[in-house]
C-alpha cells in the first residue's frame, strides 16, 4: 500500500513539473484540462461518521463508523489508511483521541466514556492526518449529549444577567427534581473560574445560588458541580447572550450588483447566539418610496428579495424579528459595469442567464463553466448572451446530485461571477427494501432482518452500510445531519450550516427555494478557483498517511547541538524481541515509516555514534496533531429545549426500573482501586529495555524471601544470575550469555533507573530502595549494542535519597505513540435458552443493535439479527447509512414494531 501511495504522489509531482515546464497557453479551451490536472494533483477526502446514537450516559460506549470517501466521486477513498477521532468537552478540551486503521475496507471504532465525565454537549471530531494538514475547515464534527443518572434526576434552572462591570455576568442557579418539580438545595455548589480553579457558591435563603462571573467562560459554557446526598456531579450549561439582538448580512446574486436591471439579493439574519433569526420587513429607496412592500425570511433567517435596482438611488431595509425588534440596514451599492450570473430552477430545468449593468455596453466574449465537486460538467463560450431572453437551459438529468458551481469568465480566464445552485438528480436516488421475519415482536424475542438496496431501475446494488437500532424512549433522534446532508452539502461549503438534514427531508420541491437561499449566502472553496483558471494548480504540502511513523533527530558534539549524519538508530518494541535499524540523514533526521502498531505499544528508540558510543542527543518528534475545532453554536432553540425536557422525564422513568438506576443510586462509596490511565507519550518509570518477557521480581519479594543484607546479595537470588568473586572483584553475570564458559565471565550490563552503573556502586545502596530487578537476555539484548552482549540487569529504585538520584541517558527514549485501536465487537445479548429469557434483571438497552459493516451485493441481501429488550412501549428506530460501489449515497430510517 505504501509503495502505491508513493507512486501516486511521485507521478503527480512529475505531472506538475511537466505542466509548468510546458507553460501551456491560457485560453478558455484549457479550462477543462486545468481542473482535471488540479484534481489529479490535489485529490481530496471527505468524511462522514454515523454513531449508534446521539445521546449517551457516562460509562456508555460510543460506537461509530467513519465513511472516508473521495471528495469528487463519493466512492470509498484509497488515500489514507488511518482516521483519528477526538472527543472534545464543551470547552473544546481533548477528552480522548483514538486512531483507527482501515480493516476490510472500512473504518470502525469506539470510545468508552469515563464514569467521571461531566454532563453536557460534547463534540466528536473525526478526520485523517491528510485532512488535518490540508483541509482543516472540512473536518467532520458532530454534537453528542452526555448525561449521567444524577444530572438526569435534577434539573437546573439558570438565569444570567449583565453585571455592573463591563463583561461581568451574574449567574442564578435553581435546582429542582425532574419528576415533581420540587425545589432542592444541594449540599454544595461550586463553579470553575479557570480549568482547575474551583470556587464555592454561597446559598441564598430562597434556595437560589447566585454568583458573579468576571469573564464569559470558553464557548459560553458555564462549568459547575454540585453535591447532593454525598454524590458530586459536574455539568456544563450554555450561557445565552445577555442582549437579545440580531444582525443581517447581504449577498448579491453572482457576487456583485448590476444597476438598471432586476436583481436578487439574499440575506441572512443571525441572533447573538449564532442561530438563524426569522425576520420580516420592507425595502425603501433613498426617496422614501417603498420598493418591496413586504418580505419574510424563508428558513432560519435566510431569504431572497428581488427588485429593480436604479443606479442613481440607494436602498435600505427596515426589518423586525418575531419579538418586534426593529433594525435598519443599507443595502449593497451597485457595481458599475457589473456582469453577473443569475440562475433558477423551474420544474426539472435549470435556467442560467447573465445580468448586465445597464451602462455596460460591451459585448466581449464570455464563457460559462459548470462544475460539481471540482469536476467539469460543461465549459463553453456563451454565444449572443447580450440578447434579451438568451438564457441557457439544462435538464436536471444532466447533472449529478450535489452543489453545482457556475463560473462566468472572460477570454483571459478571469472570473467575473460565481453562483452556486443545488441539483437533485432523481435518477440517483436509491430504494431500500427492509424486511423482518415478523410484523410485531415481544420482549426478548429474536429479530431477523434483511436489507436490499435498489437503484431507480430496480437493479440491486452492491453497498456497504452501517446499521443502528435504538429505543426512541431513551435515545434522541439526530435530525440535524445525515450522510446525505454531510457529503452533498456541508462538506462542500465553508462555515456553519444549521440543521442541514432539514433540506433533505420531506418534499424536496418545498425545500428547493430555501436551499437556494442557503447557497446564495455560502461559498465553495476547496480549490483556489482563480489560480486554477490560470493553470496554477494547488499542490498539497503533505501526503496521505498509509503507514505509521516514528521520527526524530540525532545530535552530536560536545554540546550535542550539531546534526549527526549517518549515525545508527534502533527501534525496539518492548513487547517482543524484534527491532529495526536505520541511519540518520545528512541533516541528522531519522524516520521509521514502514511500521504498524496497536495502541499501547511501547518502543525504545536508541541512537549511538558509529562506534556504538552513547555520546549523542536523541529527540523523538511528538505527534503534531493538535486540537482543531471549527466552532458551531451549542445553543438550543426553545422548542427543542422543551422536547429534551419531556424526553428526559420519560428516560428517567424507564432507566429507574433497571440496573442503571441501581448503579447510580448507591450511597457514597470509597474507591480504593486506581483508574486505569493511558500511557503518556513519554513513559519513564522503568528502563526502556523493560519487557513483560524478561524475568523480573520486586524488591519487596526479594527482601521478604531472602532478607538480603545488600543489593549485591539481592542480585544473587535473581533467576538466571550468578555472582563472580575474585578477591576484591565482585560483579554479576548471566551464565546463559557465556556459552563458551569464559573465565572470568563477561560482566552483565547494569542499568539503574536507565543509567549505566558499575557493580561497586551497588554497595552504597540499601535493599529497601530497590523497587524491582529485571534480567534481559537472548534476542532482547540486541538493541543495547556492544554494552549488552553479555545480557543486562535492570534495577528500578523507589524513594532513592536525593544525593543518589541519577540522570537519564540522552541517547535513549521510551515512547508510547498513539497506535491504532484494536477492534472490539458490539455486545448484544442472546435469549436462546429458557433460563436466559426468564432472567430477572431488566434489559434496558438503549442501542439494541449496531453493526458498522452490513453489505449487500447484486445477488445477495444484507442480513442481521438481534434480540429485543424489555422496553416495548413504542417501535424501535432503525437507521441505515452507507454508499454503493459507484458512490450512490444511502440513507433510510424505519421502524421495527414491538408490543
TrEMBL record:
Residues 698-792 form the TonB-dependent receptor plug domain. It comes from the Bacteria. Residues 46-131 form the Macroglobulin domain. InterPro entries: MG2 (IPR002890), Plug_dom (IPR012910), Plug_dom_sf (IPR037066). GO terms for molecular function: endopeptidase inhibitor activity. Keywords: Receptor. This is TonB-dependent receptor plug domain-containing protein. The lineage of its organism: Bacteria, Pseudomonadati, Bacteroidota, Bacteroidia, Bacteroidales.
Amino acid at each position: 500500500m505504501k509503495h502505491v501511495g508513493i507512486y501516486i504522489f511521485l507521478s503527480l509531482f512529475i505531472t506538475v513539473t511537466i505542466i509548468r515546464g510546458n507553460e501551456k497557453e491560457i485560453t478558455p479551451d484549457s479550462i477543462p484540462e486545468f481542473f482535471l490536472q488540479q484534481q489529479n494533483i490535489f485529490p481530496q477526502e471527505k468524511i462522514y461518521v454515523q454513531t449508534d446514537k446521539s445521546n449517551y450516559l457516562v460509562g456508555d460506549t460510543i460506537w461509530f463508523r467513519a465513511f472516508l470517501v473521495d471528495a469528487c466521486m463519493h466512492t470509498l477513498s484509497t488515500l489514507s489508511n488511518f482516521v483519528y477521532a477526538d472527543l472534545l468537552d464543551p470547552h473544546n478540551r481533548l477528552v480522548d483521541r483514538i486512531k483507527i486503521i482501515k480493516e476490510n475496507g472500512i473504518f470502525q471504532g469506539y470510545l468508552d466514556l469515563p464514569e467521571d465525565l461531566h454532563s453536557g454537549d460534547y463534540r466528536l471530531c473525526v478526520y485523517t492526518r491528510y485532512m488535518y494538514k490540508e483541509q482543516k475547515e472540512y473536518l467532520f464534527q458532530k454534537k453528542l449529549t452526555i448525561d449521567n443518572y444524577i444530572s438526569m434526576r435534577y434539573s437546573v434552572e439558570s438565569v444570567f444577567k449583565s453585571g455592573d462591570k463591563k463583561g461581568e455576568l451574574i449567574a442564578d442557579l435553581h435546582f429542582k427534581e425532574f419528576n415533581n418539580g420540587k425545589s432542592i438545595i444541594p449540599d454544595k455548589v461550586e463553579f470553575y473560574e479557570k480549568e482547575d480553579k474551583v470556587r464555592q457558591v454561597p446559598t441564598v435563603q430562597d434556595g437560589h445560588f447566585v454568583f458573579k462571573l468576571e469573564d464569559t467562560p470558553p464557548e459560553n459554557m458555564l462549568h459547575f458541580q454540585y453535591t447532593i446526598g454525598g454524590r458530586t456531579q459536574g455539568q456544563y450549561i450554555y450561557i445565552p447572550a445577555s442582549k437579545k439582538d440580531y444582525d443581517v448580512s447581504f449577498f448579491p446574486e453572482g457576487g456583485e450588483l448590476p444597476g438598471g436591471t432586476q436583481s436578487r439579493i439574499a440575506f441572512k439574519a443571525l441572533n447573538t447566539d449564532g442561530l438563524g433569526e426569522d425576520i420580516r420587513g420592507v425595502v425603501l429607496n433613498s426617496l422614501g418610496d417603498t420598493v418591496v412592500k413586504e418580505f419574510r425570511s424563508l428558513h432560519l433567517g435566510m431569504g431572497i428579495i428581488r427588485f429593480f435596482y436604479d443606479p442613481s438611488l440607494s436602498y435600505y431595509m427596515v426589518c423586525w424579528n418575531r419579538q418586534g425588534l426593529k433594525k435598519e440596514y443599507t443595502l449593497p451599492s451597485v457595481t458599475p459595469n457589473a456582469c453577473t450570473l443569475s440562475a433558477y430552477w423551474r420544474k426539472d430545468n435549470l435556467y442560467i442567464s447573465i445580468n448586465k449593468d445597464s451602462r455596460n455596453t460591451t459585448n466581449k466574449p464570455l464563457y460559462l463553466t459548470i462544475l460539481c465537486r471540482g469536476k467539469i460538467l460543461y465549459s463553453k463560450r456563451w454565444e449572443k448572451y447580450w440578447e434579451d431572453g438568451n438564457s441557457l437551459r439544462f435538464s436536471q438529468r444532466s447533472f449529478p446530485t450535489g452543489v453545482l458551481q457556475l463560473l462566468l469568465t472572460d477570454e483571459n480566464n478571469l472570473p467575473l461571477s460565481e453562483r452556486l445552485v443545488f441539483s437533485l438528480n432523481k435518477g440517483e436516488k436509491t430504494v431500500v427494501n427492509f424486511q423482518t421475519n415478523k410484523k410485531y415482536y415481544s420482549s426478548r424475542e429474536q429479530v431477523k432482518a434483511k436489507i436490499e438496496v435498489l437503484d431507480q431501475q430496480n437493479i440491486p446494488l452492491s453497498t456497504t452500510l452501517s446499521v443502528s437500532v435504538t429505543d426512541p424512549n431513551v435515545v434522541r433522534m439526530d435530525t440535524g445531519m445525515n450522510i446525505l446532508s454531510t457529503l452533498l452539502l456541508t462538506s462542500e461549503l465553508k462555515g456553519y450550516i444549521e440543521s442541514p438534514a432539514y433540506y433533505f427531508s420531506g418534499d424536496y420541491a418545498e425545500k428547493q427555494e430555501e436551499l437556494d437561499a442557503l447557497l446564495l449566502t455560502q461559498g465553495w472553496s476547496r480549490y483556489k478557483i482563480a489560480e486554477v483558471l490560470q493553470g496554477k494548480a494547488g499542490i498539497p504540502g503533505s501526503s496521505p498517511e498509509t503507514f505509521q511513523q516514528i521520527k526524530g533527530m540525532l545530535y552530536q558534539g560536545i554540546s550535542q547541538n550539531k546534526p549527526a549524519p549517518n549515525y545508527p538508530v534502533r527501534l525496539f518494541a518492548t513487547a517482543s524481541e524484534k527491532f529495526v535499524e536505520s541511519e540518520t540523514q545528512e541533516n541528522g533526521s531519522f524516520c521509521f515509516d514502514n511500521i504498524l502498531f496497536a495502541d499501547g505499544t511501547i518502543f525504545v528508540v536508541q541512537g549511538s555514534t558509529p562506534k556504538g558510543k552513547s555520546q549523542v542527543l536523541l529527540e523523538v518528534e511528538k505527534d503534531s496533531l493538535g486540537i482543531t475545532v471549527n466552532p458551531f453554536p451549542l445553543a438550543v432553540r426553545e422548542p427543542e429545549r422543551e422536547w429534551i425536557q419531556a424526553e428526559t422525564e420519560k428516560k428517567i422513568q424507564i432507566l429507574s426500573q433497571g440496573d442503571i438506576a441501581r448503579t447510580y443510586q448507591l450511597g457514597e462509596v470509597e474507591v480504593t482501586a486506581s483508574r486505569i490511565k493511558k500511557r503518556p507519550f513519554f513513559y519513564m518509570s522503568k528502563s526502556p529495555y523493560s519487557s513483560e518477557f524478561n524475568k523480573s521480581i520486586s524488591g519487596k519479594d526479594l527482601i521478604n524471601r531472602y532478607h538480603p543484607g545488600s543489593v549485591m546479595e539481592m542480585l544473587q537470588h535473581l533467576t538466571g544470575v550468578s555472582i563472580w568473586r575474585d578477591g576484591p572483584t565482585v560483579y554479576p553475570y548471566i551464565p546463559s550469555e557465556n556459552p563458551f564458559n569464559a573465565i572470568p565471565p563477561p560482566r552483565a550490563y547494569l542499568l539503574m533507573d536507565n543509567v549505566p552503573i558499575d557493580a561497586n556502586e551497588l554497595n552504597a545502596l540499601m535493599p529497601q530502595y530497590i523497587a524491582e530487578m529485571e534480567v534481559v537476555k537472548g534476542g532482547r539484548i540486541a538493541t543495547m549494542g556492544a554494552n549488552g552482549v553479555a545480557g543486562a540487569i535492570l534495577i528500578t529504585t523507589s524513594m532513592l535519597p536525593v544525593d543518589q538520584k541519577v540522570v537519564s541517558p540522552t541517547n535513549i527514549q521510551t515512547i508510547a505513540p498513539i497506535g491504532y485501536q484494536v477492534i472490539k465487537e458490539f455486545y448484544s445479548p442472546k435469549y436462546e435458552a429458557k433460563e436466559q429469557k426468564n432472567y430477572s434483571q431488566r434489559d434496558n438497552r438503549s442501542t439494541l443493535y449496531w453493526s458498522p459493516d452490513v453489505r449487500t451485493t447484486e445477488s445477495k441481501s444484507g442480513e442481521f439479527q438481534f434480540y429485543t429488550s424489555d422496553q416495548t412501549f413504542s417501535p424501535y428506530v432503525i437507521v441505515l447509512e452507507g454508499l454503493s460501489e459507484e458512490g450512490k449515497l444511502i440513507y433510510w430510517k424505519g421502524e421495527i414494531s414491538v408490543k
